[in-house]
Specification:
alpha+beta; 16% strand; 2 domains; Phosphorylase Kinase, domain 1; five-stranded antiparallel beta sheet; Aminoglycoside 3'-phosphotransferase, Chain: A, domain 2; two-stranded antiparallel sheet
C-alpha cells in the first residue's frame, strides 16, 4: 500500500487573507517568492481557478492598498492581473492583495528557453511601458519626491561611491517634480511580464513599487534590469517606447539605478555582476561620475586620439 505525501500546511496569513478578502478557505498554497517585507503565493481554492495572494508585513511602506490602487489606475491602458480583493489582515497593520492567476510563464523564461527572441522581448517591454505611461495620473495619487529616493539610497550606499555619483545626482535632483510624471511600474523587467492565454498576451505584474514618477526613471530601470546596454538592445526597447525621453535624464537615472542595484546586491556573484556593470557604465558615461582621487583622464584621451 502506498501513501501520498502530505500536503504542505497553508500559512495562517494566507488562509486568513482568503477568508477575509474572498470569503473562501484556501485548499493549497505554493510559495512563489519571498522578500524582506512581502511573500507571494499561488493558492488553490475549493472551487474556481487559482489566485495569487501577496502578503505585506506591517512594516512595509508600500502595501496591498497602494499596489491595488496602481493596478486599477493602469488597467485600462495595459494588460494586468485582475484585483479580486485587498485589505488589512492583522491588528498590527499587515495587508494582503489577491489577484487573478495568469500562470507561470514569463517573458524572461520565454527568452531563456529560446521561444521568444531577446530583441522581441525588449520591444514587448518597451511597448508595455509606453502603454502604462499613458494611464492618467490622479492629482491625489501619492508621489515619492526624487530627493527622497536619493536620500533612501544614501542610507545604505558607501559615501565614497555616492560622492562619485554626484554629477548624475545633480541632474536627477534638479529635475522639477512635475516634469514627465506618469504612472511608473517601478520594477520593469522581463520576469515581471507574464504571458497568458491562447495568444500569450503580455501582462505587467508586480506593482509593489508602482507610483507616479518621472518616465525616464522607469525606462532607465527597464534598460538597467534587462542589461540592455548594447546598441541593438537599446534600440529595440527604446524604439518600441512611443514617448519622447530626455536622454540626459535617462543616462543619469541609469547611473543612479546601477549604483542602487550594486548597493543592494548581496556579496558574491551578484555583487560582482553589478560591480562590472558599474565599471562599464562609468567608462561609457564618465561625465556622470567623478573620477577616483588621483586618477587621470589622460589615458582615455590618448585612446580616443588614435
Amino acid at each position: 500500500m502506498t501513501t501520498s505525501p502530505l500536503a504542505a500546511p497553508i500559512p495562517p496569513m494566507v488562509a486568513r487573507a482568503c477568508n477575509l478578502l474572498l470569503g473562501s478557505p484556501a485548499k493549497a498554497a505554493e510559495r512563489l517568492a519571498t522578500g524582506s517585507r512581502t511573500a507571494v503565493y499561488r493558492v488553490t481554492l475549493p472551487d474556481g481557478p487559482n489566485v495569487i495572494v501577496k502578503l505585506y508585513s506591517h512594516t512595509a511602506r508600500r502595501n496591498a492598498l497602494t499596489e491595488a490602487t496602481a493596478i486599477r489606475a493602469v488597467s485600462a491602458a495595459v494588460p494586468v492581473p485582475r484585483v479580486l480583493g485587498y485589505g488589512t489582515t492583522s491588528s498590527a497593520g499587515a495587508t494582503a492583495l489577491v489577484t487573478s492567476d495568469l500562470g507561470p510563464g514569463t517573458l524572461g523564461s520565454a527568452v531563456r528557453s529560446g521561444s521568444v527572441p531577446r530583441l522581441q522581448a525588449l520591444r514587448d517591454l518597451g511597448t508595455l511601458l509606453g502603454r502604462m505611461h499613458e494611464a492618467p495620473v490622479s492629482t491625489s495619487a501619492p508621489r515619492r519626491p526624487v530627493i527622497e529616493t536619493v536620500a533612501s539610497l544614501s542610507q545604505r550606499c558607501p559615501s565614497d561611491v555616492l560622492d562619485r555619483l554626484a554629477p548624475a545626482l545633480a541632474i536627477i535632483t534638479d529635475t522639477p517634480d512635475g516634469a514627465s510624471v506618469v504612472w511608473c511600474h517601478g520594477d520593469p523587467h522581463l520576469d515581471n511580464v507574464v504571458l497568458s492565454g491562447a495568444r500569450q498576451t503580455r501582462h505587467l505584474v508586480d506593482f509593489t513599487d508602482a507610483a507616479p514618477a518621472h518616465r525616464e526613471a522607469d525606462v532607465a530601470h527597464a534598460l538597467v534590469m534587462t542589461d540592455a546596454h548594447s546598441q541593438w538592445d537599446r534600440h529595440a526597447l527604446l524604439g518600441a517606447y512611443p514617448h519622447a525621453v530626455n536622454d540626459t535624464h535617462l543616462a543619469a537615472w541609469s547611473a543612479f539605478l546601477t549604483v542602487s542595484c550594486w548597493t543592494h546586491a548581496g556579496p558574491g556573484n551578484n555583487r560582482t555582476i553589478w560591480s562590472n556593470q558599474l565599471t562599464e557604465l562609468s567608462r561609457r558615461t564618465p561625465h556622470l561620475f567623478r573620477p577616483h582621487p588621483g586618477h587621470s583622464h589622460a589615458p582615455q584621451a590618448r585612446r580616443r586620439a588614435r
